[in-house]
């Protein structure tokens, strides 16, 4: 009739009816199909064998009501057919769904899926999360499943909170799941790219000293969460490889630990080893302590009674909060971190 179109949808050619007026008003594709020289314009039944009935019904629901139930299970097909049928508003809703769905636990999956969709803002949001806390994602079960192009985008990042050795370690993890891939080009990207850290150095100031370092005790006294990604540690040693065991405590409860093998190529002067780990969130008004165990023993080089200078982050640095009133001799040169403002209601 002039009012209805009858569609035979999917492999089983399920019959679904729809108003011509709604389809023509919503889609240039259907407008051209009905008013153009296509054979469908004169037929009473139109075969759509490249779409499942439940997907087509969801699209019709959008055409009639402006609503659609988007899920990770149907987003791929909805996206394909919203492009085919030139439903630009639905296409925008699909892209918005992807962006709002990005969370730390699924970012690698969405980032990989976006090689198909090609949404630049989705890539930017995913990469921002990955660059900020890369070691979390390198150790995630989904990391070995990402495709080569996605991995290349990560390795090519101009800013990322890890060392080149840790990037190489991530590449080794990925290679184990893709033994058929030649990774020489990817290794060259890591070696030849110039990059910086996606955070800033919160430097510790104070007179230098040759005393043995104490555990680094501090608390944040400003109303600011601090996301900690790494630390810089003073080292002076003739050893080629230095093992550094690090533990971080919050109110005497261990909240982070890591073991680093630092390749030392500076045997004469004091060096600073940049040690990156998975993000640790430091909260205001909690006591923290960073404990370092370095082997073989290094020649002492510390900062006495360290202080920081920052517009927003304020710290109390003193061993007195751990029951000791002696001077603080700290082997930590700086903290790789980023501040995150929070409301007073969120502090706890």
UniProtKB/TrEMBL annotation:
GO terms for biological process: neurogenesis. Residues 1-72 form the BTB domain. SUPFAM superfamilies: POZ domain. It holds the Pfam family BTB. InterPro entries: BTB/POZ_dom, SKP1/BTB/POZ_sf. It comes from the Eukaryota. Transmembrane segments: none annotated. GO terms for cellular component: cytosol. PANTHER family: BTB/POZ DOMAIN-CONTAINING, LUTE, ISOFORM D. This is BTB domain-containing protein. It comes from Aedes albopictus.
